[in-house]
Amino acid sequence: MGILDGKVTLITGTGGGMGRVAALVFAREGSKIVGCDIQAEANEETVGMVRRAGGDMTGIAPVDLTDAEQVHRLADEAAAAYGGLDVVYNNAALVRFGAMPDFSVEDWNVTVAGELDIPFLVSKYTWPHLVRRGGGVIINIASQAGLIAGATPPMVAHTAANAGVIGMTRQLAVEGAPHHIRAVAISPGPVLTPASDRDLGDNRAARDAVVSKTLLKRFARPEEIVELGAFLASDRASFITGANYPVDGGASAW
Ligand SMILES: NC(=O)c1ccc[n+]([C@@H]2O[C@H](COP(=O)([O-])OP(=O)(O)OC[C@H]3O[C@@H](n4cnc5c(N)ncnc54)[C@H](O)[C@@H]3O)[C@@H](O)[C@H]2O)c1
Predict the structure, then answer these.
(1) Which terminus of the chain has fewer Cβ atoms in its 10 Å neighbourhood, N or C?
(2) CATH, residue 48
(3) Distance of CA 229 to the CA centre of its chain
(4) Residue 198 domain-assigned?
(5) Which atom of ligand 1 is nearest to the CA of 92?
(6) pLDDT, tens digit, 9 for 90 and up, residues 204-231
(7) CA separation for the pair 148, 251 (Å, rounded)
(8) pLDDT of 200 over the 90 cut
(9) Are 27 and 50 in contact (CB under 8 A)?
(10) Is position 38 within any domain?
């Protein structure tokens, strides 16, 4: 018995990082998975991993989640894959970092599209499917940057977009409640994924700075974020909506 038995979950960004781990963990808990990514080959790898582990997953890729038309199509195909949708796990994001005032308008627009437009578009186009199902759950992966500023790396658009995701989650909870849709945000601290590895490179000072803000003095493993996601998506979390959960090793506590 898994805590997500009988559910169908759409997970965005299953080509790697936390999205891939989310596909594996949600499948382990009994959910059927629809996973999408802009990277088709990496997404297929995840489909293979889930199936070899005994899970059920359909991959839809490539799809550019910043494009409203493509997201509309994705939402309909995702709902058709297993006959409906119960959970939408908004994980995919694309971010650029850089210092003021040189952070360009293009960098800003790419980050806001990649971090704020994506969960909005995916929520917008999957919403009717959740309503049709009689309710569901939207989990938005935000960031500790939505709660506190950060010096390393400089992150003006990242902080703004993720504060936006947390605010949007509260609003989705308000508008979703009459339809039995819960909306919950998770705000991870530093997690070791291909993205954080790429952003920090071999800059030891930057890695130390990031880790030193956590009380636990380390990066999280993707599982440490995703296991909470599986719980929040399950019926065990049936009274939780409109909330944001920092999973940041204590970084936002001081
Ligand atoms: N890694 C961290 O330290 C950290 C910390 C806080 C929050 N987060 C958040 O967690 C989530 C996952 O992060 P991650 O580190 O696993 O990232 P990642 O870059 O490893 O994975 C993100 C996935 O999303 C996909 N993607 C990006 N843009 C896309 C688009 N336009 N259309 C379709 N797919 C697209 C990528 O191809 C990739 O597979 C993100 O929302 C991120 O902001 C990460």
Answers:
(1) N
(2) 3.40.50.720
(3) 9
(4) no
(5) 24
(6) 998 999 999 999 999 999 999 999 999 9
(7) 9
(8) no
(9) yes
(10) yes
What average pLDDT does range 153-178 have in this prediction? Answer: 98
For residue 66, give the ligand 1 atom closest to its CA: 31
114 Cα–ligand 1 center, Å: 9
The 57-60 sheet, strands edge to edge: 57-60, 32-36, 8-12, 87-90, 136-141, 181-188, 244-247
Summarize pLDDT for 67-83 with one digit per residue, the tens: 999 999 999 999 999 99
DSSP letter assigned to residue 219: P
Q: What is the count of structural domains for the chain?
A: 1
Q: Is the dihedral of CA 72, 74, 75, 81 positive or negative?
A: positive
Q: Within a domain: residue 172?
A: yes
Q: Is 92 in the pocket of ligand 1 (CB under 6 A)?
A: yes
From the CB of 188, is ligand 1 less than 6 Å away? Answer: yes
